[in-house]
Design a protein that fits this description.
It is built from 4 helices and 4 strands; from the N terminus they run αααββαββ. The protein has a 4-stranded antiparallel β-sheet, covered by helices on one side. It is an alpha+beta fold. The chain has 2 domains: 52 residues; 102 residues, Ribosomal protein S6/Translation elongation factor EF1B (Alpha-Beta Plaits). It holds the Pfam family T2SSM_b. It comes from Pseudomonas asplenii. InterPro entries: T2SSM_b (IPR034756).
Length: 207
């Protein structure tokens, strides 16, 4: 015998079917075309508001950043960490003298350190400040070499040890101390940037 729904059950089923139809119409006709795009727009607006707040915070720091930039630009004129010479040849000679003085100041005990060669190296363009560079060949014991490197890195003028090649010296040592063949490339920067050439006048070829 087929199951017959009562009038009350038919009414409940009709209401349930109507609710399902309304939900389907909402998701297909309203949510898909209106609600979802609005939610996406709201999310994008939240991102834009966060970016705007971040940009406003950066804008508020503009005076402080400009003051720091101006100070950084003006500091090198009296910066003791740069070489005071205006000529690269003089600055290179001064850099060599500093290295030689550091080597000669090492105590003779523990094998000491001797300089076998030193040559200037033409540095590449490092605008806005010019660079000077020297290559030094040394014959050192371990302890004096450590002292020398520490002294070079703690100069009033900032020196950069760009390359350091250490090898065991194959020549027989005079004593029991192990000798090392050391190749150093040391660089520093000049205080004064290169002078800018004057603009050529009209009709006058540049010098």
């Amino acid at each position: 015998m087929p199951l017959r729904l009562t009038h009350r059950d038919q009414r409940a089923a009709a209401l349930l079917l109507a609710a399902l139809c309304l939900a389907a119409v909402y998701f297909i006709g309203i949510h898909w075309w209106f609600t979802a795009p609005l939610q996406s727009i709201e999310a994008n607006m939240a991102i834009l508001r966060a970016q705007h707040q971040r940009y406003r915070a950066l804008e508020a720091q503009r005076p402080q950043l400009q003051a720091q930039l101006a100070e950084a630009r003006n500091t090198p004129a009296g910066n003791d960490s740069l070489l005071p010479d205006t000529d690269t040849g003089t600055a290179t000679a001064q850099l060599m003298q500093w290295v030689v003085a550091k080597v000669q100041a090492l105590p003779p005990d523990n094998g000491g350190c001797t300089m076998s060669n030193r040559i200037p190296i033409v540095a590449a363009d490092t605008a806005p400040y010019r660079q000077v560079k020297v290559s030094v060949s040394l014959d050192c014991s371990i302890a004096p070499l450590v002292t020398l490197l520490h002294g070079l890195e703690n100069q009033p003028v900032t020196l950069f040890i760009e390359t350091l090649d250490i090898r065991r010296n194959m020549l027989p040592a005079s004593g029991a101390t192990q000798r090392l063949a050391v190749q150093l490339q040391i660089s520093a920067y000049l205080n004064n940037p290169p002078a800018k050439p004057l603009p050529a006048r009209k009709g006058v070829p540049p010098a």
